[in-house]
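Reposting from the mailing list since nobody answered there.

I have sequence plus structure tokens for a pair of proteins and want to know whether others read the tokens the same way I do. The first protein:
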Amino acid sequence: MKDKVQALAGGMMVSIIVLVIAGIFIGVGAGVVNQMEAQDSIIFAFFKLMLDLGLMVMRNLPPFFAIGLAFALSKSEKGWAAFTGFTMFMCFNVAIGSIAAFNGWTPETTTVDYLVNNMGYDKVAAQNFNSLWGENLGVFSFNMGIFSGIIVGCITAALHNRFYKFEMPGMLSFFSGPRAVVIFAYIIIMPISIIGYYAWPPIAGGLQSITTLITSSGLFGSFLYGVFDKGLLPFGLHHLIAFPIEYTRVGGVMEIDGVLYEGVRNIMNGQMSSPDAIGYITHNFTSGRIPIQIGGLTGAAYAMYVTAKPQNKKKVAAIMIPAVFTAAVIGITEPLEYTFLFVQPFLFFAVHVPLNGLAYIITEFFGVSIHGNQLLFMVPNILQPEKVHALALLWIIPLYFVVYFYTFKYLILKFDSKTPGRDDNDDADIALYSKADLKKKKEQAAVGLPVEIIKALGGADNIDNVSNCATRLRISLYDETMAATDDIWIKKLNAIGVVRMPKGIQIIYGANVITIASAIKEELGIDS
């Protein structure tokens, strides 16, 4: 079960890619459009187009997740899986709308005024019931947000993986294989829609209760979120904590310029696009990452550099500087975090995790209101500085650098932690390479590494499925005991870390994992 949950978390990263692009387009487009008075110029039209493209994504998230998850979770014939995912998504919503109409619910009968004046609802009950409904690509249906896309995408992938090799009788052989899955999708969507129609209202009520708990818990809720978000990182489950808060109504609901946005990240994108918004929400569960990624981990890296043996400091710096840059600019923190997680778990769980939760409290308490938590994606803030309230970061970030530096330095020396450059046998791991060595290493990474990884996984016959998220290679295995030891993965196969589980393994490689995964699939003959 755990590996399936982790696969789901990794699969959602496919759809998140388009959200990142949409955020940049909204930020740049709105930043220019909201400052221009002349609306008949080519410049205005161009940036208005950028804004509209970004908002198109934000207003149509469910189908992106249905298609993305169907693609990511399918084992083969991924193009057909994605097509089936979109087909099932449209069928699901049409079926929900049809069942609703049979029961008397239409766009006209679900309005607040109609419910109050004709159905005897009080205003609050009418508003709650009205919030259940909406449109998906022009189809009247439940307003399930991205949950509808996630549900349909997962069902599609399961159906596709089960039947994409299905053989029809001779006369119907044209409809064999993945074409059969499309046919089965039309059949299975009917009972699924009936279940969805009756199950969603109580689920939506439960989500509303969770929303109320989170939004009313204030700073304590922010602390818990920060602790779980980082504490679950080694287990690959951190996306399942962040995702509902950032992209679903669990993180809150806000109407901006007549459009209802769900989830703190979507709300902030809506505020960024609105000329009337004066700032971003502070209870956003994202600003707390800024002190960690820019200040804290930089301090930890500097502590590891300072405590390294004198003869190894230049080599350690060569490793740490790119890792610090990646964490601050792109937001990929795992290379640094796994460096001290595997040599001294105490530093991670007893120091890094609670300090992460504390960062969320501090930024929220001092009213930090800023869009983005990586330097690369903060550019839109420059275009609309009046919306940004982040002066407190000028002392919070240095404070976190100091706290992390002295805490890590003290504990590394006290426990004699074998962070990079402190082990007597560290030379081979942190050695500088000549130009010839570098060329050889690149050739090995491009050609030899996938082959070696397959061997370390117990051979091609032991591999059930290959996928990846932002930094992890996620492998489903028939026999997990055949996989190589952690020492081989880290010292011989360039991995940052390893997470093991029943019938599977995750190998952390960092941002270049997508190219490694593609090379492995090509070597195995797996359809990407």
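The second protein, same order (residues first, tokens after):
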Amino acid sequence: MKKALLTSLILLALNAQAESVFRRGNSSEPKSIDPQLASESSGSAVIYDNFEGLTSNDAAGKLIPGVAEKWEISDDGKTYTFHLRDNAKWSDDTPVTAGDFVYAWRRAVNPATGGEYAFILYPVKNAEAIASGTEKNIEALGVKAIDDRTLQVELNSPTPYFLDLLTHYTSYPVPQKTVEQYGDKWTQPEHIVSNGAYHLTEWKAQAKIAAEKSPTYWNKDQVAIDKIIYYPIESEATAFARYRAGEIDYVESVTSENLEIARKEFADQLHIDPYLGTYWIGFNTAKPPLKDNVKLREALSLAIDRKTIVEKITKAGQIPAYTVVPPNVKNSDPYQPENAKLDRKAQIERAKALYAEAGYSKEKPLKISLTYNTSEAHKKIMVAIAAMWKQVLGVETELVNQEWKVMLSNFTQGNVEAYRYAWIGDYNDPYTFLEIFQKNSAMNHSKFSSDDYDAKLKEASATQDLAARAKLLQEAEKILVDNYPVAPIYYYVTVRLLKPQFKGYQGNPTGTLRTQHLHIEP
């Protein structure tokens, strides 16, 4: 009896000392983990573990202090003063200073840097002018270090979502000395200096990335997982197979086919949560036949049976969408278009009438191309939409499959008619969905143009009262939605699998998973 008890105690002690490891399926090999250069989810997953900004999010997505322990906002809402923590340090044990943020933000908006997310900082004074090249003096950016622990930021106008915006990695500090010493190789394991809960230790291209708990992180005592391994697995089916085999602990996306298996085998490990994202079909409003033809665009939108798509194809609880801004966004007063209230029969009747008014019929059908990027999931939806257009209206649709980079190039050149796209919110506010449809936005692939729309957004940007601002954004969205530059299809959910010994996970609207919020229970 005593021997058995002793053995149990020894095993418990050994387990307590064992290194805790989180093996994470990551969607692909990151193009970059440089906070000012990264632009896709696989890179951001590593950044959110290894770096930290002025503000952060808790596991549920709630805004919390990060490197800044507190801040003040001026009465006019245009000046923010951040006070950095005394114990905020880089992984080389040097202090994180206000100057590190000044350097990083200037780097982010500098056209020479080549980052794609400079617009994240556009609320900051002169950020857009510097990024566009009209302001040549980079020191004109509205950010300055009062001292090592105090950062002051000047905005163009009151920006209620600014603190949420700063949770985005583009605003994170980077170590100037290291960046300038090693150039584009500064993020390699042998050189990298970071300020987050973890520190990169290994990077084997197309195989794995590893990071270990940082001993210099200010909140290290609250970090329970010792090591993270990120596996670049592009195929969702492969990631699911490896999860079933026990080779990885976390899968960030599950195909509709495997979702049925997951519901049976891993019901207690499946996490499906609302997400700040909208899936849509875009229409090129600058090119015939969709140019200057709102009735045709509305007919195509109404012919799509969204309920069938979410119930028969995606199957994960996605919500049919008729507007661009998801319903769970903060600071919003959602717009409800009349077409969303029609039953399916009435939608079809209206679609047919509009199609005829636009000059088309089953005898004289619209011929259109529908472009989508390579994905089995996208293909199924595009095939279904083409069939719906054919059945309801008689439209003849050519499906065009392209690699993502090729499709983006064709967006820039205007070489698309209808196309698949989506937008995932960069921060929790309606503006992140609406700003991309401004005339000068590089993301405005539909070429939508409305002076009234742009004016509403500008007015909203200068409005501090949140209720009044929400109303202005609702009015802007009405202009957008009623002009049909896009046909929203559904609002996203995240569909994830996490091994049951990992506790602390909470679904959150931003979809961000920071490993520091997890811990292991036997």
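Reply #1 (J.P.):
I read it the same way you do. The chain has 16 helices and 19 strands.
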